[in-house]
Automatic annotation (TrEMBL):
Keywords: Signal. It comes from Dissophora globulifera. Residues 77-172 form the Chitin-binding type-4 domain. This is Chitin-binding type-4 domain-containing protein. Transmembrane segments: none annotated. It comes from the Eukaryota. Residues 1-26 form the signal peptide. PANTHER family: PROTEIN, PUTATIVE (AFU_ORTHOLOGUE AFUA_6G10930)-RELATED (PTHR36182).
Length: 225
């Protein structure tokens, strides 16, 4: 009897593990720096009552609806230390890259109310990547980035499939930069995120317009502690 119960427990554990793998690898999510709520190995356990996000790679909304807030998870987590003037080495869990698309990386010092974009990739982000492949992008952090706590955000508009927006955020502490001051750059474009947002149609086929001009109209903003 005990042996049968043990086999049942093992089987249920394997099913749960397989379910976690299939769910967590769907679409694409930020792997490093550790995203809020990340259940990944090497990331701190979620705090503040936040549960592990086993669906970290799923979108936060489509052009029809805002399913989840920007950042996807809103409770701050133990931060990753970043050095001003050095690239942020970002890596991703890739399940379904949907033909690539547009990516933006941004920084906020006021808890996500105001963002400044550090890097933008139009059309080529995740392009040509297969599900399960490693993927990384170096994002420059300005040498004059103010020291202190901040939030680092990744945004992705996919090229093929439902008109979705993906977002993950990592809590960070910046060192080696400026004591005060601000950095400036474009504000993020939150496209395909509710009916009032900019619509970026599919652009995976040859000759299909990729709506790159929508990013040209982003206003310039300044952020700092």
């Amino acid at each position: 009897m005990h042996f049968k119960r043990s086999l049942t427990t093992v089987a249920l554990g394997l099913v749960a593990l397989m379910s976690f793998a299939s769910v967590s690898e769907a679409h694409v999510g930020l792997l490093r720096p550790c995203a809020r709520g990340s259940p990944r190995a090497g990331c701190p356990a979620p705090t503040g009552g936040q549960q592990p996000d086993y669906d970290l790679n799923s979108p936060i909304g489509t052009h029809d609806s805002q399913t989840l807030p920007i950042c996807k998870n809103i409770i701050p987590q133990p931060p990753t230390t970043l050095q001003a003037g050095q690239d942020i080495q970002t890596t991703y869990s890739v399940g379904a890259p949907h033909g690539g698309g547009h990516c933006q990386w941004a920084l906020s010092y006021d808890g996500g109310k105001t963002w400044v974009v550090l890097k933008t990739m139009i059309h080529t982000c995740l392009q040509g990547v297969n599900g399960g492949d490693p993927y990384s992008v170096a994002v420059p952090l300005p040498a004059n980035a103010p020291n202190g706590k901040a939030v680092f955000m990744w945004l992705w508009n996919n090229a093929i499939g439902n008109r979705e927006l993906y977002s993950n955020c990592a809590d960070v502490v910046i060192q080696g930069g400026a004591n005060g001051g601000k950095i400036s750059g474009p504000a993020p474009l939150f496209a395909n995120y509710g009916t009032s947002s900019v619509l970026i149609p599919e652009f995976g086929g040859a000759g299909q317009p990729d709506s790159a001009s929508a990013f040209d109209s982003r206003p310039t903003v300044s952020v700092g502690p």
